[in-house]
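Notebook, student rotation project (T.W.).
Task set for the rotation: take a protein with a known small-molecule partner, predict the structure of the complex, and write up what can be learned from the model alone. Partner molecule chosen: pyridoxal-5'-phosphate. Sequence and SMILES entered below by T.W., checked by me.
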Amino acid sequence: MNDVINTNYTFYRGRVALYSILKVLGVKKHDHVALQAFTCLAVPEAIMAAGAIPQYIDIDDNLCMSPEDLKKKITGKTKAIIIQHTYGIPADMDDLLEIALQKNIPVIEDCCHTYLSMYKQKRVGSFGIAGFYSFEWGKPIVAGIGGGLNINSNDLESEIQTLYKKFDRPGFINQIRMEIQYAVFKFLYRPKFYWPLKRLFHLLSSFGIAEGNYNPIDTIDEKADKDFLLRMGHQQKNRMIKKLKNLTKTSEHSKRISNEYSSKIKSDKVSHLKFSLNKETVFVRYPLIAKNKNKLLDEAQKANIELAEWYTTPIHPLKDEELRKVHYISTSCPNAEKYAQRIVTLPTHGSVGNRDVSRIINFFNN
Ligand SMILES: *Cc1c(COP(=O)(O)O)cnc(C)c1O
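Predicted structure of the complex:
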């Protein structure tokens, strides 16, 4: 099944797909673009590469944008709203879209965490003028590095087509590096190798051998001249198309695993999110609220249990002073800050087998 991604336009990364949409919407210098806090640097990076200023909206207890806070914060300068379906949990689309419609501001959906989650029987990504997707390491479908779009407006599509003509393929060396990285990922990434692989990845990207997840924030403008004019590599694209054919199966697997976690993990170390877990959510990872996040992560590492920490700050992985450089004002999104200190996530990806699930459940329940 693939009527989700428009394979005519594929990008170097998810953030490049987002950047392209912002560009064709005419977003320019000094404009504001609303996005939720409790996200990753890739999103404000795209906004800033387009010259605009990220405007952070707090989250609700579903970890997605709060309509109430959006209403409070949007102004005449807000030129687009990016709605993220965090971990695959659909955002509160009815209320958010109503606000956007009232002010006549276009909505872009950040679907990097999910393809097939449904909100009131309609697939996420089909509400806004466009949805964007990512195919890198932590995402539901891993193609190496890459990004895609789902465009819901014919006008917008013809403008994307024009812009896309100017885009190049990644260079040869870059392609090779991405292929090596993918091979390592494919052969080594199992829940059991999560911690050692994570250390290796950080080490290699600090030496510039592996392509890291984030660019240095001081050079977003320079990077914009390079990364933000690239298409997805050939190999990555072929792999994406192939894997998208199994999307339904991949999503069913993820649903089954998260149902296990949700019904069987009963521990005073963690609590489940309170929003009614609707069966139509396809999680990229299953979130839990930890009583003591750092302690739990330490224990998980010792027990060799795949437990991820993202997002660790309102704009992962930035801290303190760095947050200001992407225009985040400390304490402006208290809920995002609170959840960044508490959320941990469990894997639902294809290499999680029944034995992994039992180990994970035992880790919590014993
Ligand atoms: C991964 C991700 C992105 C962007 O992904 P890249 O392909 O790395 O640019 C954007 N938003 C969210 C929520 C993501 O998780």
